[in-house]
Amino acid sequence: MQRVCVFAGSNAGLQPKYGETAEWLGKELTDRGIDLVYGGSKMGLMGRVANTVLEQGGKAIGVMPTGLFRSEIVHTELTEFHEVPGMHERKAKMGELSDAFIALPGGYGTLEEVMEVVSWGQLGIHNKPIGLLNINGYYDPLVQMIKNGVDSGFIPATHAQLLICESKPDRLITLLQDYQPPAPTNKWSEL
């Protein structure tokens, strides 16, 4: 695993633990020689993880649509920066550059990004590991929703394994490095 895409809030959130864990994640990535791929902002949790990677001598690669430069405040000290026309291209480029995905806490954008890569994994578009960094139980409701989807017959039980949930960055990265995709499963129960 050479590069990990981190989805994260462009805000810091209300709990100091969010920022502290984002920095811990940045340090863990750098200690393991793993490059960061992310949305390119210097704000919020996005900025905290990127700044830590850079301060530790690691590589931080940003991808941002031109139209977001002002609102997300582009990080100008990155190792590499990719300007793209729109959000679809942003997500495609981040996926292309990455070997795995981690979601820190975030808002609608973070949730949308992680659910898209899970959907791509379910459809076999990629076999890359996907982790939720579940700081202070932030992702507990999402994990419960996925369990509800399995229990209600909308998600095959083996596809619940597409998301790895862990509260500690070091443990999560190890789980992603050891990840084995679930055996192919027919997604459509009526076939």
From TrEMBL:
GO biological process: cytokinin biosynthetic process
Family designation: Belongs to the LOG family.
Gene Ontology CC terms, in alphabetical order: cytosol
GO molecular function: hydrolase activity, hydrolyzing N-glycosyl compounds
Alphabetized UniProt keyword annotations: Cytokinin biosynthesis, Hydrolase
A Pfam family the protein falls into: Lysine_decarbox
Name of this protein: Cytokinin riboside 5'-monophosphate phosphoribohydrolase
